[in-house]
Structures are given as structure tokens and as C-alpha cells.
Amino acid sequence: MRIAMWSGPRNLSTAMMYSFGARRDFAVVDEPFYAAYLTRTGLEHPMRDAIIASQPTDPAEVVTMLTGPVPDNKPHFYQKHMTQHMIDAIPRDWMDQVRHVFLIRHPARVIASFGAKYDNPTLSDIGFSQQTDLFEWLTAQGDAPVVIDSADIRRAPEEMLTQLCGVLDLDFDPAMLNWAAGGHPSDGVWASHWYGSVHASTGFAPAEGELPDLKGASGALVEAALPHYRRLEAHKL
Fold it and tell me: Which one, 72, 99, 133, 171, has the greatest CB density within 10 A?
């Protein structure tokens, strides 16, 4: 099985990659289209040059990797993807070869976390509109994507991962609940900038508290992203 997990940044996505990576039957890959995205958009992201040097910049080469032999001869392949990377230059003709899961998080939490690492984020930076676009495109192709909310995972990790595995026709593996501190060998080169908290973890963080009360430009961005979150929330496990 090949699982494409789609989210925006700061959305429990790395912890989910570690969770599947803790299974002995899964290989994982971290944001494989990132370098292709940066070279085609010209965006100045933290560690831009190092990211471009670390990955293929040709989307066709990335697709060949995603659909070819699973790394390390594992039975299954978990692919962590960022929806904002799926610009027009990135093909979608490979997507019928993978199972699609959409990982969502309330935009107030995403924006509060992302804004601490990235100045003046826009709606296109945080992936909400692209997530809706991709979800609706897949649905129109006859796919039935799975949606899961990061808040529910943090509230009840074993329960929600058991549900997720069930709809994917996988056996739940208790190994998914814990991982070694310090990162995963498949981390992208950008991990040193973004993954500090998850590198310090050995499992899912506990349930979150009240939503951040964001004002000004951040509050406006929450309002712009909220309809996209609600659209997918209606389909969540």
C-alpha cells in the first residue's frame, strides 16, 4: 500500500510520519516535491538552497520514486505531502496509484505555530485552499479520500489511529504510538529549522487547550482559511 498524507504546515504531519515510520512494515518519505516547488515558484523559504540541493527538482523524477519500488523493500510506503507544493507544474497522473488521507487542523492553531517560524504568511503558504482543491479534484475522479483531524489524534491517539488503519485495510500496530527521540532517518534537510518540538518527543503530544485568539492580519488569515477547514471537517473520521 502507498499512502499519500496531505496537509499544510504545522499540522501534526511530521508526528504522523514518525508514527507510520515506527512500523516495521512501512517506509516513509518527507515532502518529496519540496525542491521542485521551490525551484518553480522562486519562493525564499528557510534553508532554500539546502533543500534544492537535497532533492530532485524534476517532478517526473519524484513521481518515479513515489510509484516505483518501495524503499528498503518494505511492504508499504507512507508519503508525507504538503498541499501547497501541488502547483500546476506538479503532475497528478500518479495519484490513482496511492490511497489518499487528508490531515486537517484548525487554522488558528496552524497560523499561530507557522507564524512563529515564517514571517507574514499568506493563505497560499499554509495550504488550506490547495487542500480543498485537491480533495475536490480527487472526489471528482471517483476517489474517496479519508479525512482525519489532528486534534482528534492528539485527544485519543490509539483510538483514532485504529480507525484510520481500519478504513485503510491495515492492522493497527501499537508501535505507531511511540518513536525514538531525535528525529527519523527520512527527515528532510529542513528538519533543523522546523522539527525541534517533534524531535524532542517520543509520542503524540496531549490534547490541545483553547484556540489561540489571533488578531489583525493573523485573525484575517484565520477567517480566510476557516471555510476550507470546515469543508473537509465535514468528512472527518
Answer: 99
pTM: 0.95
* Distance, CA of 128 to CA of 79 (rounded, Å): 19
The grid coordinates of residue 48 equal 532554500
Mind listing the pLDDT tens digit for each residue in 113-160?
876 667 788 898 899 999 999 999 999 999 999 999 999 999 999 999
User: In angstroms, what is the C-alpha Rg of the chain?
Assistant: 17
Within the chain, how many helices (H) and strands (E) appear? 12, 5
Q: With contact defined as beta carbons under 8 Å apart, do 6 and 134 qualify?
A: yes
Query: Which cell numbers in the block locate residue 69?
Result: 519500488
- Which phi and psi (to 5°) does residue 170 adopt? -115, 150
Query: Cα(77)–Cα(66) distance, rounded to whole angstroms?
Result: 8
C-alpha cell at 209: 487547550
